[in-house]
């Protein structure tokens, strides 16, 4: 009985191996090995002018009295908010990015010798939807008492159209490369076997960092240029080789 079961099992295994081999060979080249392909990387980049800016600004107060420091920072931030509202910036586009209080330590040759002033910092992140207003907004905020600017970042709020354009360019670039390789190898390219996409973009930073004391006189609007923003897409595409 056991010999009969063993014979049936061996026959089944042989039949499975034969069927698998026949499928792999297949008629008309079906089931060809995946290595019989041409794989290339295509790149595409689309450009646009930024339509939104993110400005980081605030105030830093140093005072031996923590209550006085907090009150002074609050008064300044309130004045900055009033200045921002004059440009039509809504409350939803202004948020507190950072707020901290700490006391400075006094150090001597042997290490800490006591406690110094309190340092209070309050930073706002402002979304500016009219990018041409950025220089004037900075000037107005500094005039209202802000003494710290963390930077300005320009961006495109909806990048879907740029990504689509860059993607089309990347695919065209990949196909051109594959066709060139195929011509050099005396073959042709067939259907697409695999596609992997890697989108990439970089916002435009316009640094305007600074901090310290307040500004007694009116501050001129700094000449900040938004430039253009690039959205890049890379695609890795494998094409079947047709001989």
Question: Can you describe what's shown?
Answer:
With 243 residues, the protein is of the alpha+beta class. It folds into two domains: 33-49 and 157-211 and 222-243, Protein of unknown function (DUF541), domain 1 (Translation Initiation Factor IF3), CATH 3.30.110; 52-155, Protein of unknown function (DUF541), domain 2 (Alpha-Beta Plaits, 2-Layer Sandwich), CATH 3.30.70.2970. It is 33% helix and 40% strand. The protein contains four helices and eight strands, in the order αββαββαβαβββ. The protein has helices at residues 2-25, 66-85, 134-143, 160-184; strands at residues 37-48, 52-63, 94-108, 111-128, 148-155, 188-202, 204-206, 229-242. Strands 3-4-2-5-7 form a five-stranded antiparallel beta sheet.
Which SSEs are present, and which pair or pack?
Blueprint: H1 2-25, E1 37-48, E2 52-63, H2 66-85, E3 94-108, E4 111-128, H3 134-143, E5 148-155, H4 160-184, E6 188-202, E7 204-206, E8 229-242
Antiparallel strand pairs: 1-8, 2-4, 2-5, 3-4, 5-7, 6-8
Mean pLDDT, to the nearest integer, reads: 83
CATH architecture of the largest domain, please? 2-Layer Sandwich
Largest sheet: 5 strands, antiparallel
Broad structural category: alpha+beta
Helix content: 25-40%
Topology, number of strands: 8
Shape: elongated
CA-atom Rg in angstroms: 32 Å
* Strand arrangement, major sheet: 3-4-2-5-7
CATH superfamily label of the largest domain:
Protein of unknown function (DUF541), domain 2
Domain unit count? 2
Give the C-level CATH assignment of the largest domain. Answer: Alpha Beta
Order of helices and strands: HEEHEEHEHEEE
In DSSP terms, counting alpha (H) and pi (I) runs of 4 or more, how many helices? 4
Question: How much beta, percentage-wise?
Answer: 35-45%
> Residue ranges: pLDDT <50 for 5 or more in a row?
1-33, 213-217
Distance between the termini: 53 Å
Annotated CATH topology of the largest domain: Alpha-Beta Plaits
